[in-house]
Amino acid sequence: METIKADRVVDTRGLLCPMPVVKAKLALEEMKPGQVAKVLATDPGSRMDFPAWCNETGNKLLRAEEEGKGLYTFFIQKAREV
Amino acid sequence: MAEKERKRVALVASKGTLDMAYALLIIASTAASMGWEVGIFFTFYGFDIVNKRKVHRLKVASLANPAAPLPVPNILGVIPGMTAVATWMMRRMMKKQNMPTVPELLDLCRKWGVRLFACSTTMGMMSIKDEDLVEGTECAGAAAFLEYASKAQVTLFI
Fold first, then answer.
1. E strand intervals along A3-70
2. How many whole angstroms separate alpha carbon B80 and alpha carbon B59?
3. pLDDT digits (tens, 9 = 90+) for B43-67
4. Chain B residues with CB-CB distance to A53 below 8 A
5. Which residues are B156's β-sheet partners?
6. I want to staple B45 with a disulfide (CB 3.0 to 4.6 A). Which of A5, A12, B6, B16 is the partner?
7. Which of B22, B24, B34 to mutate to probe the A interface, most A CBs <10 Å?
8. Beta strand extents in B7-146 (DSSP E only)
9. How many CB pairs under 8 A join A and B?
10. What is the value of pTM for the model shown?
11. What is the ipTM of this complex?
12. Which DSSP category does B132 fall into?
């Protein structure tokens, strides 16, 4: 799998809903359209939350990865408007 | 997203306990983070969530709440001080999970433009003054809220 270059890492490990999407939103607010945020999460709800959140916000979920031990990684590209 | 495409959620906050404040503000802040329009109608005890003097001191009920985080049989919830114990335990659980406090979540909602409607009947009945309420709270009646809610895709009573 080709690597995705992230412009910013958003670490939400150890945080519960709604904080992963809240932190992602706060980070994307400071980023430029087209830039990519790499979001690290351990909240199991984030597996379904980030696809839904991206669908609603228009930001693009480039990739969702799941490692063992409950670590989820999401690469989210900021849309033109958030 | 273009203005006309924005989804809307209309919430009614009728309870003034710590657990219900979290339920309300988690949904509100998440919807706001997705770019939705969010409006909350505060009524009856829900007012404590936008009351500057009370929002820092919301409690968890120990009485008639079998799910209260208490290590004792529920009947002992009547003992004075048990509400404080249940509240302390829930605050500790939230802190352990690095959850923001209720005032922090409320501030986040306000930053993202969540509209806070204050039920005018409750204000009159409970003698709540404008200056008791967090900044930006709008006094409204049921008709105004219903009109707002009629354009919402999601409406929840909490």
1. 8-12, 36-41, 60-67
2. 14
3. 999 999 999 999 999 999 998 888 8
4. 33-34
5. B11
6. B16
7. B34
8. 8-13, 37-42, 115-119, 138-140
9. 40
10. 0.89
11. 0.85
12. G
